[in-house]
Amino acid sequence: MRVLSLFTVVTFPNGGCAGASGDNGTCMTARECTARGGSANGYCANGFGLCCIFMTSCGSSTSENGTYFVNSGYPSVYDGTGSCELTVIKSHPDVCQIRLDFNRFSIAGPEQMHNVCNQDQFIVSGGNPVPAICGNNQGSHMYIDAGIGMTNPVKLTFVTSGPTFERLWKVKVTQIPCSTIYKADEGCLQYYTGVSGQLRSFNYDPVSGLQLSNQDYGICVRMERNFCGIQYTACPDTVNNRSRSFTISGNSNTPVNAMIGSGAGPNNCANDWLLVPCGTNVGRIQPAQALCTDRICGGTFSAELSMQASTVLSTVKPFRLWFHTDNIEAPVDVGNRGFCLNYVQQPCTNNLV
Ligand SMILES: *[C@@H]1O[C@H](CO)[C@@H](O)[C@H](O)[C@H]1NC(C)=O
Ligand SMILES: *[C@@H]1O[C@H](CO)[C@@H](O)[C@H](O)[C@H]1NC(C)=O
Ligand SMILES: *[C@@H]1O[C@H](CO)[C@@H](O)[C@H](O)[C@H]1NC(C)=O
Ligand SMILES: [Ca+2]
Predict the structure, then answer these.
(1) Smallest CA separation from ligand 2 atom 7, residue
(2) Residues 221, 158 share a domain
(3) Which terms are listed as keywords in the entry (predicted)?
(4) Ligand 4 centroid to 165 CA: how many Å?
């Protein structure tokens, strides 16, 4: 029989753990958790450690990996105005990116003429340029470039102003080491993995979400092994008679065809667009590079001037889209929801290389 003396010290690695509440934390001793400002929430390391959760709100700073940044009064809603800021300090010089997961994200949406976030805003500063967003973004994420070494900290700010609104947010802040394979590619505000998935613009909601103005960012899909192309299809829209799951320009209260290209003119995408590199409708012959269509806008998702939505294939690698909007909507662009696309990667057969 093994006897543990009173003086045996049990050690275990400070790994990630799932707390009893469903939040994720870091496994450590009770004493360490208290010293670092966390709160113990269930056991880990076979009962030798406690799952220490870090949750913080306005005016604080954190260097703890996996910190949850919540609104003042969380889990109750916050209906006040002001500015609520979290400073994120690298836990280690070898941290290159910060991943933000919007577990809860409901703040006032944009004004309804030009869809500009001028009441409430979520602002990220200190990293790569990130467009300000607002509205409802639960389930969405962002990757922030934190630079190399101990650079300026990244700051996350919720600005709330304007009329009464039941705001709620809970943003998980994960620090990603430079050396890991799950780091996002350079220049991707959003980074998706997996053979299939769904991409949505910020504040997308088929019922009442409005496409946000002043956006300009990359959306990347990791090329999985043995996949050579990617197909995008507008998501099903179960609430509108005519699908609004791809409505980027035009008056969406009436049917609007797909528009393509970058020139000026009514059927071009000079102002707001989704760039799908060399996108072609499935079943069409891939054009020569010089004839590629890149920008798609309008109110129908297709790589051709059409009223009929289509699945669009792109074989340009790596897989990435770019979304751009200017700061004008009315009177030409009305009721646009932005986009929701389902993607499926295509295997390196069927003439895809
Ligand atoms: C905890 O981690 C799991 C696994 O990564 C994830 O699916 C879940 O959403 C996380 N929960 C929270 C509240 O962050
Ligand atoms: C932060 O936690 C995640 C898992 O939640 C882990 O993958 C990552 O390596 C951790 N970052 C650091 C700097 O330890
Ligand atoms: C859909 O069309 C029907 C019949 O034209 C109309 O009554 C209904 O209000 C429409 N619904 C929406 C959400 O536009
Ligand atoms: Ca616009």
Answers:
(1) 176
(2) no
(3) Disulfide bond, Signal
(4) 25
- Report residues whose beta carbon is within 6 angstroms of any ligand 1 atom: 22-24, 103, 172
In a domain, 48, yes or no: yes
Same domain, 198 and 336: yes
Work out the pLDDT band at 219, boundaries 50, 70, 90: very high
Residue closest via CA to ligand 3's atom 10 equals: 241
In CATH, what number is assigned to the domain containing residue 242? 2.60.120.290
Write out the residue range of the structural domain in which residue 42 sits.
16-52
Residue 184 covered by a domain: no
Q: Which of 21, 23, 24 gets mutated to test ligand 1 (max ligand atoms within 8 A of its CB)? A: 24
Q: SS3 for the chain, per residue?
A: CCCCCCCCCCCCCCCEEECCCCCEEEEECHHHHHHCCCEEEEEEHHHCEEEEECEECCCEEECCCCEEEECCCCCCCECCCEEEEEEECCCCCCEEEEEEEEEEEECCCCCCCCCCCCCCEEEEECCCCCCCECCECCCCEEEEECCCCCCCCEEEEEEECCCCCCEEEEEEEEEEECCCCCCCCCCCCEEECCCEEEEECCCCCCCCCCCCCCCEEEEEECCCCCEEEEEEEECCCCCCCCCCCEECCCECCCCCCEEECCCCCCCCCCCCEEECCCCEECCCCCCCHHHCCCEEEECCCCCCCCCCCCCEEECCCCEEEEEECCCCCCCCCECCCEEEEEEEEEECCCCCC
Whole-model pTM: value is: 0.93
**With a 6 A CB cut-off, is 231 part of the ligand 3 pocket?**
no
Please write the tens of the pLDDT for every residue from 81-134. 999 999 999 999 999 999 999 999 999 999 999 999 999 999 999 988 999 999
